[in-house]
Amino acid sequence: PVNFVFLLPVFFFQMTKSVTNPEELGGLASQMTNDYGHLALQGRMAAATAEPEEIGFQIRTRVQELGHGCIFLVQKAGALQICPTDSYTKRELIECARAVTEKVSLVLSALQAGNKGTQACITAASAVSGIIADLDTTIMFATAGTLNAENNESFADHR
Q1: Residue 124 placed within a domain
Q2: CATH number of the domain within which 103 lies
Q3: Average pLDDT score over residue span 111-131
């Protein structure tokens, strides 16, 4: 899902730019449909494994809302291809693209909420790795005898 989420600003730019070249809209709508299909599949898996259950519900709901927004966007793209000079349809297409962008940000926030535990583990593992590296460095300097001893004992006595 992340690929779709990060590609959306590019897609939004292309979609709004294509308002002046409606013949490009068919390919963009097809690509968005494919990308959404992948997102829906991965979103279903993310929702099934999310803890707590309400996060899974939120992911599922927001992915569905995004799907509805994509449907409206594809419909507006088709309408603009039929009548490429209609300024009202152009504005509607741009508004639909903005709405889809907002829905993608909601999907992303739901996915991130479901990922908090994983991110906390990654952060903790990184902190522990840093501590281990600091201890290894201290041991290396102590073994080399470069640390100042407070008394006449050696590091080997305490190691």
Answers
A1: no
A2: 1.20.1420.10
A3: 67
Q: Is the pLDDT of residue 56 over 80?
A: yes
Question: How confident is the model at residue 64, as a pLDDT?
Answer: 94
Domains: count for the chain:
1
116 secondary structure, DSSP code: H
Q: Can you read off the two tokens belonging to residue 158?
A: 């305490």
Q: What's the whole-number average pLDDT of the chain?
A: 75
Comparing C-alpha atoms, which of 76, 71, 120, 111 is closest to residue 94?
A: 76
- Other Cβ atoms less than 10 A from the Cβ of 98: the count is 15
The parent domain of residue 87 ranges over 1-115
Asked if 113 and 58 count as a contact pair (C-beta separation under 8 A), the reply is yes
Is residue 23 domain-resident? yes
* Separation of alpha carbons 149 and 85, rounded Å: 83
Which helix (H) or strand (E) segment is 18 a member of?
none
Q: How far is CA 14 from CA 20, 45, 54, 59, 155, in A?
A: 10, 29, 35, 27, 65
Task: Say whether pLDDT at 134 is over 80.
Answer: no
Evaluate whether residue 121 is within a structural domain: no
- Percent of the chain exceeding pLDDT 70 equals 61
